Amino acid sequence: MIGQLEPTFRTSRVNYLGISIRSEHGLFVLVATQVVREFDVLLDELHNDSTSITFSGAYVRADGHQRFLGRPTLAITWGHNKDHRPDLKQLLFILTVTEDGGVLIHFRAADGNTTDVTTHRNTWEMLCQLAGRRDFRYVADCELVSTDNLRYIDQHHGHAIGT
Predict the structure, then answer these.
(1) CB 3.0–4.6 Å: which of 12, 27, 66, 140 could bond 144 by disulfide?
(2) What span, in angstroms and rounded, lies between the C-alpha atoms of 86 and 90?
(3) HSE (side-chain half, CA atoms, 13 Å) at 56
(4) Range of the domain at 21
């Protein structure tokens, strides 16, 4: 159960496999890049969306401040619930798939009160790293269409389509 291991053990375990990586982010990029190469997955058009995952209960330790393996936990809290359940707490799940077969290429979770409009820059930068280029089409819902998001992607030579 990797989630319960100490960070030093996790690092040595990854190094044992012959991979020099210091974070889960780096490991994800390495694995995803290998999948893209191995299965000839096209990265010309990437589709992004998010959804809320609802929870009931207190979740006292999931407050964004408690430390788990040296990092703050995500905050399970109230936000704009996409299931129209304002009575339930939530996390935000952000997913990106390829147009080429709907292959999941990126995933992350965010605090429950994170707004979609604030997730696109970091997601787009991660996808640039993964694709090794910036000229792919980044397709997302209307939350992508903000002056700041579109200006950022344009200034960094990207292409965005908001639906």
Answers:
(1) 140
(2) 9
(3) 2
(4) 1-40
